[in-house]
Amino acid sequence: MAEAAEAAEPGNLAGVRHILLVLSGKGGVGKSTISTELALALRHAGKKVGILDVDLCGPSIPRMLRAQGRAVHQCDSGWVPVFVDQEQSISLMSVGFLLESPDEAVVWRGPKKNVLIKQFVSDVAWGQLDYLVVDTPPGTSDEHMAAVEALRPYGPLGALVVTTPQAVSVGDVRRELTFCRKTGLQVVGIVENMSGFVCPHCTECTNVFSQGGGAELARLAGVPFLARPLPSPFAGSVPLDPELTRSLEEGRDFIRDFPQSPAFPALSSIAQKV
Ligand code: ADP
How far apart are CA 132 and CA 17, in angstroms? Predict the structure, then answer.
């Protein structure tokens, strides 16, 4: 592990306008995917975006943005985040940059995780940001509490909740919504991911899982259902899209390179609503 910044100025997120935590009840539902594509869509809308990856035990954003192996440097005001694009419109901080190899495991107890998350907030030279997107681990854990506590001084905190359509995932999301209520996070919306698969040959949709759980949950919780309504049967959801999987594996810019893909309209529309 690299050494943490020792003499950084506190308050390095003072220049942020909106903070959005991306939450999910369980792993593998596409939380890091949504965080990544939201950041890219905001960037293409002309915004300056920071991504804070506090999924300490499974940091996948560096790989999804082809930033794996990049180094974090120090300057007078703390750690300099990794700039993902040449225009420096997306800055990223992740424990993945502090590990000696991508296969290294973070085996830490809560207090050590809390210290690192606080440092990611106060010791990183974030500069002026329109949005800080915070990718969190699944569930509600020490990392969530540490992030909420560290970020709260910088303004109201929004939450974007990601689910898959199955009832079991939706049940997990109910717990996320309770967490948001108890910690004062404002739920800006629910995204239902992996909802339906469009056959690339006949364009017919198959609902691989069940359908409509996210929309129902949003209705019950009284929060917006964020992905743009697509023609039935996709109403308000991000479909399973092999081009999205490929794009993430290759660390490509899906929003720029795959505008014809089934997942593009829903993914790009989320940025217009946060
Ligand atoms: P989480 O952060 O919730 O653990 P990830 O974002 O890492 O989940 O997604 C898990 C896997 O599913 C990744 O390999 C990702 O490429 C893939 N994936 C996520 N959403 C979609 C989608 N809509 N279509 C196709 N693949 C997806």
Answer: 8
